Amino acid sequence: MKFLFDDESFSFEALRSAGYIAYGGADLGEVLVTCRQIPEGDEDAWSAQWAATAARVERAGREALAAGHRVSAREALLRASNYYRTADFYRRENPAADAESARLAKASQQTFADAAALLDTPARALRIPYEDTTLPGYLFLVDDSGAPRPTVLFHGGYDSTLEEDYLAVAAGALRRGYNVITFDGPGQGGTVREQGLHFRPDWEAVVTPAVDFALGLPEVDGGRLALMGMSLGGYLAARAAAFEHRVAACVLFDGVYDLHEVLAAIADRAASTPGGPEALMAQNTQARWVVRNGRWTFGVSGLDELVKAGEAYTMAGIADRITCPTLVLDAENDQFFAGQPQRVFDELTCEKELILFREDEGGGEHCHEGAMFLFHQRTFDWLDTVFAS
User: I need a labelling partner for 114 at 20 to 30 A (CA). Which of 63, 161, 209, 288 fits?
Assistant: First the structure.
């Protein structure tokens, strides 16, 4: 689904940022005027223009807050957070030494934290115990009654951030009476940038401490705790649910069967490209970003090591260990994991459902970007039904 750019990756990321209009994370005019100043495939211009828009919107939010306009401040700061995240997206050549990348990430975190403090519903920053450290998270509550409610435990995937999690899932869940716990696991958001934690395939080692933490909160109904993972999180959540059986339902948003296949396909393309991997990286925005982001988040030095690391990220021989009801989402035009949700679904032996989002209904992109209301309608209606029974 082409959106503003011919470059497939730019089109998708612009759609992703714009799609959060649904919950106040963007404004269409701001997206349009930002994108029209970015040449096709120009990552430097992408970062500069999104950063400029973010700074302008943040200033408006700060001025509104100083003047006592709480709603206006919240709305502007929430948009700024999303725009700062978008500005940082392609800055992956060497994030550890990129001062601008660090600045943008910190600005996204801070503007979101300031917006969260202004929400109409309670939001609390968390530190979830994990091995010898903690993981950053948020607890979003429907109200301040302290009553236990069905709760979604949510994490992202290959590149998502804790701040994005609110727009991607939490805002829609709150409207339907669900409390939500979001967190960054190893390899994600602030954990890789600030703590040097990298992805691990045995994601149950991450989710089990999060479940322990969740079950200790009075606002969490332990019998109605759902685990949900986005993008690569569709593998991570499935892997965790195969070994952590205290979750009452699992949502794979979307289903991922084998990460190695995706990475190996990039390596094969690189090998067949005249000039090799360097030529492919120069020519293809998406391949370049996948490899650069993977080097950072997996803690590897190059494409060959990334492909090797991906071998452990598979649901083969594991999917049938999931015992809770599981919803597998699929996207007709998924450019990353095409066909994989069906493979996960076929190997599940638990109560299960597969929902395909079609191109002709606007939901065919990876993780249904641009179709937030449709995604939330189908996902939470399923979850309502499962918990009611």
Answer: 209
User: Residue 117 pLDDT more than 90?
Assistant: yes
Q: Can you give the pLDDT at residue 277?
A: 85
- The class that CATH gives domain 1-120 is mainly alpha
Is the overall model pTM greater than 0.90, yes or no?
yes
The β-bridge relationship of strands 133-140 and 179-183 is antiparallel
Partners of 20 in beta bridges: none
User: Are the C-beta atoms of 30 and 37 separated by less than 8 Å?
Assistant: no
Nearest CA-CA partner of 168 in 188, 148, 146, 187:
188
Q: How confident is the model at residue 112 (pLDDT cuts 50, 70, 90)?
A: very high
pLDDT of residue 278: 87
Report domain 121-258+313-389's class.
alpha beta
Structure-derived torsion over alpha carbons of residues 48, 50, 51, 55, reported in degrees to the nearest 10: 140
CA 219 to each of CA 214, 241, 296: distance values in angstroms, whole numbers, following the listed order: 9, 22, 36
Residue 148 — very low, low, confident or very high, per pLDDT cuts 50/70/90? very high
- Tokens describing residue 332: 């007709």
- Kindly write down the DSSP assignment for every residue of 315-365, as one continuous string: -TTTGGG--S-EEEEEETT-SSSTTHHHHHHHH--SSEEEEEEPGGGT--S
Supply the residues annotated as catalytic. 231
Nearest to 135 by CA among 81, 215, 228, 205: 205
Residue 59 and residue 56: Cα distance in Å, rounded?
5
Tokens (6 digits) for 132: 């010898």
Q: Do 294 and 92 touch, CB atoms closer than 8 A?
A: no
Strand ranges of the sheet holding 326-331, from the earlier edge strand across to the other edge: 123-130, 133-140, 179-183, 149-155, 220-230, 249-253, 326-331, 352-357
Q: How far apart are CA 155 and CA 236, in angstroms?
A: 9
Q: How confident is the model at residue 20 (pLDDT cuts 50, 70, 90)?
A: very high
- Domain range list for the chain: 1-120, 121-258+313-389, 262-306
Determine the residue type at 304: D
The Cα 40–Cα 7 span in angstroms is 6
pLDDT per position as a tens digit, 42-65:
999 999 999 999 999 999 999 999
